[in-house]
Amino acid sequence: MSEHASTTVPDTDEQHTTDTATSESGTEIESENERTSERQSVVTTGAESVVAALRNVGVEDLFGVQGGAIMPVYDALYSTGSDLNHVTMAHEQGAAHAADAYGQVTGTPGVCMATSGPGATNLATGIADADMDSDPVIALTGQVPTNLVGNDAFQETDTVGVTRPITKANYFAGDSDTVGDVVGEAFMLAREGRPGPTLVDLPKDVTLGDTDTDPDTASLPEYHEITEEPDEKAVREAARVLADAEKPLILSGGGVIKGDASEALRRFAREYQIPVVTTMPGIGSFPEDHELSMEWAGMHGTGYANMAISHCDCLFAIGTRFDDRLTGGIETFAPDAEVIHADIDPAEISKNVHAEYPLIGDAARVIEQMHTEMACTPDANEWREQCVTWKEEYPMTYATPDDEPLKPQFVVEAMDEITPDDAIVTTGVGQHQMWAAQYWSFTEPNTWISSHGLGTMGYGLPAALGAKVAAPDREVVCFDGDGSFLMTVEELSVAVRENLDITVIVLNNEAIGMVRQWQDAFFGQRRMASEYPWIPDFAKLAEAFGAKGFTLRDYDDTADTLQAARAYDGPSVVDAYVDPAENVYPMVSSGGNNAQFALSEDQL
Amino acid sequence: MSQGLSGPRPEAREMPDGQRSKHGIRIDPQTGARHEPERTVISALVKHEPGVLSKVSGLVSRRQFNIESLTVGPTTNPESARITLVIEEPDPGVRQVKRQLKKLMPVISVRELGDDAIRRELVVLKVHGDEPDKVHAITQMYDGLTLDAGPRTITVEITGDEQKINDAIDAFQQFGIRELARTGQTALARGEEWTTHAEEERYERACTEPSSNDTEPNTDTK
Ligand SMILES: Cc1ncc(C[n+]2csc(CCOP(=O)(O)OP(=O)(O)O)c2C)c(N)n1
After folding, report:
1. Global confidence as pTM
2. Is residue B178 a contact partner of residue B128, using CB atoms and an 8 Å limit?
3. Distances (CA, A) of B110 to A214, A322, B70
4. Is there a domain that residue B221 lies in?
5. pLDDT digits (tens, 9 = 90+) for B169-190
6. Could you say which of 3.40.30.10, 3.40.50.10540, 3.40.50.970, 3.40.50.300 is the CATH number of the domain covering A408-585?
7. How far apart are CA B70 and CA B42, in angstroms?
8. How confident is the model over A348-358, as a mean pLDDT?
9. Residue A530 beta carbon below 6 angstroms from any ligand 1 atom
10. Which residues cross the membrane (chain A) (predicted)?
11. What is the ipTM of this complex?
12. Which of A168, A204, A258, A468 is the catalytic position?
């Protein structure tokens, strides 16, 4: 084994060019072939082949937890050199969320690893989360040896079966000679078209097994259809409808960010003066401080965004799956609008909202084509004025009494003020997530990393770690709820060990606030299991982990405390005691009419 | 207590007058929009590998499509199998089934078959053997086959379209059916029409490849 330790994996592309270059002369081909067959394979085991495949596709960082069935792969990581950076996480769920955020920030799949059985099942939440949000992630799981599979062996779970509905593709690797190729294929699939998580289950005998077959250049399965180009005629027609509209509106979804189409979108909206609302995952695709921005729509979106959606006559929706948290009741969603829906995934077209003008293809391409096909700027002065009026009618505000209790919105705004525009914000799930989305002014894509589709409490801290590993030079802030923070707080140990300079701000309302808000509104204030009077002292908890802890209670201390937390070189946690009575508004009740958002409890 | 935000109350706001159906389709107030479920046959060519059927059935159950029947079997190409789905869905549902199926990794090609598709199913049923002659007569009437005839039971096989199978079962009822086993429908497009695009493409590729020396196009190409 050790003789291979220093061997580097040849770039397969390069090898390829050498072959073609020599093909002019027959003798040269022969000698080249001879050399190739003499050349020793760089891998000796299935596990080494897995690692070689990861390096072939340019993986630099991995997140995972060790265990019996995955040990051969870790051993191969150890023996084939230290250029792959493995971050040992405290919990596999943390590994999956970290890989997910890493994938979003870098645009190439994040990799997480776990052992069989409990390791794999612990990954499942993070995989499901990535699946719902179309984030590129590769999960590598150990499995019991193939001769024990199906026998309820120690730490055996049918991982492929468990993850079938929550992965874009998953594989049971059955052969040491091909396992590397399977990993390469999984990697390609995770990022092609609509991104998503893929999983390769690695039985121990397969990773331990001998092989001298180096993994090939990573490629997609042969029968896999590559994303279609947008149809020119369809684009022309859609552009005509949009140009003719009196109340045009763009709905920019997460697909715009994933498809690197924010720039194209900005140019398009500015040139044709079309107001833009985003979905929650689409936050950052259009600058929220721009006059055309209506910010985000949906259950807790701005009043003006929801008014605009409800009243527009042409909705150009890009890269969104029309989640029910966005649409409210379908019957009342954009009821007057003709819908132009651009999406890379044909299955999203007319799944929830019927699209009169479907445009299948890459978001950036579609927007560019629309740009060229637009005959004129829509005649929509009145509409734009109406949008401004709505902004004035329904401003996003909150009351700030002079003393305690601190308003959570204020903390979000105070932090936004002192951080750079490209700072990355991650969150848990709950009220704090909504306040962060509402009161932070996002201007850049890939700065808002949150759990949207699955709504996973505990996402924020591990996601912050993954984001920081992906972008060490950018500031990373995690807004967490006390409930969410407690779900993955153990990852603080990792942040300390890796000295990841992140700032966690716990908006501590001593409750799982979002649940309590719903109980107050819809369950006659019966606060069953939603109040947490036994919450630990988070500042001390942070210190126990070796991080820096702060406690914040007053308006006057806010700026200084947040600044000190930022300035601390390493992970810091601000335990911000916020008004436990504060609730998230506006709010469209679940399945309700977007135009009837409530501005306070008595309007629900 | 929370103060809430400012602005006109919900009832004071101007509301749009349009509406959508539960399928998300804009409703023209004059005509309304309703989509009645219809029976549709969908054929999917899939990679012949373990787990395909569970992927497809998982998709069906997770997305709550109304499936009448689902059958699967190998094709002439050992690498692929054909799944035939009979679904009862309104138009938007049918399109969703096709698109979602297509997204599954081992699915190669999906097509909806027309009303004229050739569809068959098979029933094997076992009746009491008290009146063998009458049982035989009914079996013949339905072009069936007697598979087993003993002193106490007679087992027959009937193939045909769904209606014929239903009729046959009704007719055998008089003898007392002890047990029956029925397959789902399996189908091919009629005449020269191809059942799936992939097979059509493969056929054409095989025809244009000069190496093929057998009369039948080589369907084993990857
Ligand atoms: C893993 C998980 N369990 C349960 C829920 C249901 N849930 C949604 S929001 C919420 C409350 C979150 O509380 P906290 O993290 O303290 O945030 P807050 O709402 O107080 O800001 C709960 C329990 C969830 N989203 N995720």
Report:
1. 0.92
2. yes
3. 35, 25, 14
4. no
5. 999 999 999 999 999 999 999 9
6. 3.40.50.970
7. 10
8. 96
9. no
10. none
11. 0.88
12. A204
